[in-house]
Amino acid sequence: MRIPFVAGNWKMNTTLNEGIKLVAEMRPGIESTQNIEVALCPPFISLTVIHNLLSGSKIKLGAQNLFYEEKGAFTGEISPMMLAGLCEYVILGHSERRQYFGETSEIVSRKVNSAIKAGLKPILCIGENLTEFEAGKTEEIVTGQLLKSLAGVDPSPGLVIAYEPVWAIGTGKAATGERANEVISLIRQTITGLYDKNFAYGLRILYGGSVTGDNIAEFVGQAEIDGALVGGASLKTDQFISIVRKTAQLKNQ
Ligand code: PGA
After folding, report:
1. How many domains does the chain have?
2. Which residue's CA is the nearest one to ligand 1's atom 9?
3. What are the C-alpha distances in Å from 170 to residues 51, 69, 194, 195, 231?
4. How does pLDDT run across 15-69, given as a tens digit for each residue?
5. Does residue 213 sit within a domain?
6. Rounded distance from Cα 126 to ligand 1 centre (Å)
7. Comparing C-alpha atoms, which of 2, 8, 4 is closest to residue 229?
8. What domain range includes position 43?
9. Assigned domain for 151 exists
10. What CATH number should be reported for the domain holding residue 128?
11. Residue 83 within any structural domain of the chain
12. Which pTM does this prediction carry?
């Protein structure tokens, strides 16, 4: 049994005060939902305060990135060791990092490795862009990114994968549930080949890309999709709670 999982990626949104307010608004609705794991991923600057706010809560905290070195002269970067006491999860290889900050799958694999070594659970993001999608290369791109991003990575029970077609992120154009399920099924097969069947079966794989309270059922109603990585809708209390509730309901039937 895979425990359903919903993670909210706030991206570069919310000041500290806005983040505190958002957590206060969302907390009751999330905490009253059973049989689901929920993580909020605010900006680095808000992590300490939100970590303290959430002490004793079942809501988990995640970061949106890290640098793979433990410490040293890397101005502006945040290390896995700095996050280890604060967060349980860390989003890695998000398409915005790949697109705007030059992150290759090779860099991502170093980040995944050092996150795991520090005891963090990576939410590894992979997905094809619009040109690749239109050229029918989804399978090839997704498999390639997955294998390269996990190169040299030992199977770790905390690992989560998010399939996020780049053309669906922040565009309001989500993939169909059926199609996302097919790609996620391929990801699970690829993981079986890379590690083994048991690990692949237990691994949680999320869909991400324009998920809302209105379309979440289409995704989590699919057998292979274990939850969602939510961007825009994770900043809207009603939407996010609806996503969490519907996921818990559909996955625990
Ligand atoms: P979106 O973002 O829900 O705003 O499309 C998803 C993501 O980037 O993780």
Report:
1. 1
2. 231
3. 27, 31, 31, 32, 7
4. 999 999 999 999 999 999 999 999 999 999 999 999 999 999 999 999 999 999 9
5. no
6. 12
7. 8
8. 9-63+75-206+221-235
9. yes
10. 3.20.20.70
11. yes
12. 0.97
